[in-house]
Amino acid sequence: MRGHGFLLANYVPGDSLVHRSPLAVKFLLVFACGLASFAIVDWRISLLVLAGLCGLFLLTGAGLKRLWGAVRPLAAVLLVIGLFQWWQLGAPTAARIVLNILVCVVAASLLTATTPVQQLLDGVVKAAGPFTRFGADPERFALTIGIMLRSIPYIAGTFADVRDSARARGLERNPRALVLPVFITSVAFARQTGEALAARGLGEAED
What are the residue ranges spanned by the domains of the chain? Predict the structure, then answer.
């Protein structure tokens, strides 16, 4: 099964300023961009923020192709959102909403493209540490995120492979030929993941 990226850029080794920045700073950048997406009311400011983030992304050496790969899966959805908001609220508001979504996606991609997955998960464990007093389990939380990061590209790749196979047989418009194989493969993948976790004594609640 071929690998596929999904929404966020995969890690790219490098020695850029962003690569060398502390993980906490990268987390704060993503958090700040999330807040900004609610606070910014002028699409021109959103465009400037997005341009700055794209510039940072390119300076990491990840490349324009990888940046587009992180945004491309959202293109159709953003088009629909933009057209609807344009119809309802006008062009400036539609542009602001679409640009703010892109700001969040590019900021998150900047984090994942410059941070190894293990370092990212270690950071999540550390950040969730204070919540242990409320019964939270940081290790399980990080494990859940790790499984999600592994599962989403796998399922996206499964769909792409099934779609290509159906197209080769002239069945690209047959929902059954697309959905059923993806469903079966996804269930099998979930079972294999569950069995692997159980074999390592993970995934079961402790008494």
Answer: 1-115, 117-207
Q: Tally the C-alpha atoms within 13 A of residue 88's C-alpha that lie toward its C-beta.
A: 10
- Binning pLDDT at 50, 70 and 90, where does residue 52 land? very high
C-alpha gyration radius of the chain = 20
What angle in degrees, to the nearest 10, is found between the helix axes of 43-59 and 23-39?
A: 160
Helices assigned H by DSSP within the chain: 17-20, 23-39, 43-59, 64-71, 75-89, 91-114, 117-128, 138-168, 175-199
pLDDT tens digits for range 142-188 = 666 666 666 656 666 676 677 778 778 777 677 777 677 777 776 77
Q: How far apart are CA 131 and CA 11, in angstroms?
A: 28
